[in-house]
Amino acid sequence: MTKPIQAIATGTRAAILEQAIPLFANIGFAGVSMREIAKAVGITPAALYYHFSDKETLYFEAMRYAYADQAESFKMALQLEVTPRQRLESFVLQLTQYLYDKPDFQRLMQRERLDGDEHRTKLLAEHLFQEQFKAMSELARELAPEFEPHLWAISIAGLVMYHIEAEHLRHHLPGWKQEHDDPRVVADHVLRFILQGVNID
Amino acid sequence: MTKPIQAIATGTRAAILEQAIPLFANIGFAGVSMREIAKAVGITPAALYYHFSDKETLYFEAMRYAYADQAESFKMALQLEVTPRQRLESFVLQLTQYLYDKPDFQRLMQRERLDGDEHRTKLLAEHLFQEQFKAMSELARELAPEFEPHLWAISIAGLVMYHIEAEHLRHHLPGWKQEHDDPRVVADHVLRFILQGVNID
DNA sequence: GTCTATAGCCTGATAGAC
DNA sequence: GTCTATCAGGCTATAGAC
Questions:
Q1: Domain residues for A107?
Q2: Backbone torsions φ then ψ of B135, nearest 5 degrees
Q3: Residue A8 belongs to a domain
Q4: Residue A151 forms part of a structural domain
Q5: CA of A11 to nearest chain B CA: how many angstroms apart?
Q6: Number of domains in chain A
Q7: Is residue A149 part of a domain?
Q8: How far is the CA of A27 from the C1' of D8 (A)?
Q9: How far is A44 from chain B (nearest CA, A)?
Q10: Is there a contact between A163 and B172 if contact means CB atoms under 8 Å apart?
Q11: What is the pLDDT of residues A74-132, one digit of tens each?
């Protein structure tokens, strides 16, 4: 319905990436054709091949473009000079809010977990998540020393992500309420769920 | 490599479904062609259309077939006449083990969360998960009355599932150890993670 | 039930004009 | 840079023989 001509993008290359991202996120690599992408941008398929050598390269670049601003987003939350508990709280809140605000990014992550090859998965882990994951592991050592930091950090991330990824499914499961789709309610629940198991002074 | 001709299946229809399931699970609906499925079964594409009216119907029936044995699997774990804590323990253990043992099922679930339409998602929720989800919600009331049962049950399921779904990604994140791929280690961690936050007598 | 053959369309990708 | 035109091949699905 909405046809938001790119306001941010300058240049055709950026416009292509910005139109391709939601298509790949919502339909997947195999489900989207170069013709569809071209149509969304308002050019012919042939023009796509001037900017990207093939479909896979376009997909790869679309991912990199979608990730571009992400790496910066969480750094601050974890590096603040505050108590460990406050760092955990701001991390959970920020992650929840981010995933709600950027559904394309969230769905691209989800698809990579299913279809990402070794190369892309490694890139994802090392260039996007590693720094935050390290900070989370450090937090684990401070807040929950009785756990493996790696497993603990995955648990935190998984808790947040699953609530969001299962949103449609949850709507048909007993006890669902409208408010459960509110990121603040999810973040609040997840935080309480974690903190009850953590040795807070 | 391995070409395990169907040993369980009796009849072509079952053979088709059994060959289609891993293909859909690993590559996805849009990524798999009727030709590929036919080739895996050892028949021609035309023969598929004798058994299933079109590709979508085949996919739908393949899902139903993959789910068929699942509904029974978890019932006992939750209906045992044991303490709530023991029911939680056997649920987490059984879910973890099941997802590791049936990667096709696990991946089909993951794909449904991404691409499932309203109809399939509802079917999934109501015919497969509802009963176990209710039992989990009941468990929540007994073990963690300070939480919303719905959100608590989702958290438990999400904890287990995310560890498994993120397996490839985890391999490239700091602190990963080989043993973290062992379902018993994951189940043990998840259980401890949950139980520390639960009021056990 | 399964086959051969094929219709009709869509796909990724390229050549060459502008 | 973007176009028109097009190729070669893959796709779902069907018709009709056996």
A1: 55-196
A2: -60, -40
A3: no
A4: yes
A5: 31
A6: 1
A7: yes
A8: 26
A9: 23
A10: no
A11: 666 667 789 999 999 999 999 999 999 999 999 999 999 999 999 999 999 998 899 88
